[in-house]
Amino acid sequence: MHEPLVSPSNPRREPSAIAKLRRRVRTSEDFLEQIGVLAGVGGWELDLATGTLRWTAQTCRIHEVPADHQPTLEEAIGYYAPAVRTVLEAAVLRGIEEGEGWDLELPMTTAKGRQIWVRAHGAVEQRKGKASRLIGAFQDITERRRDIDALIASERRFRSLFTYSLGLICTHDLDGRLLTVNPAACQSLGYSEAEMIGMQVGQLMTARDAAHVPEYLARINARGTDAGRLRFLARDGTQRVWQYHNMVDTHAGETQVLGHAQDITEQVLQEQRLREWSIRDALTGCYNRRFLAQHMESADSRTTWACVTLDLDKFKEINDTFGHQRGDEVLVAMATFFQRHVRAGDYVIRLGGDEFLVVLPNSAITEAHELAGRLAAGADAALCGFTAGCAAHVDGASVEATLAEADRALYTVRRRRRGES
Question: Which residues of 349-374 are buried (b: 16+ CB within 10 A; e: fewer)?
Answer without folding.
Answer: bbbeebebbbbbeebebebbebbbee
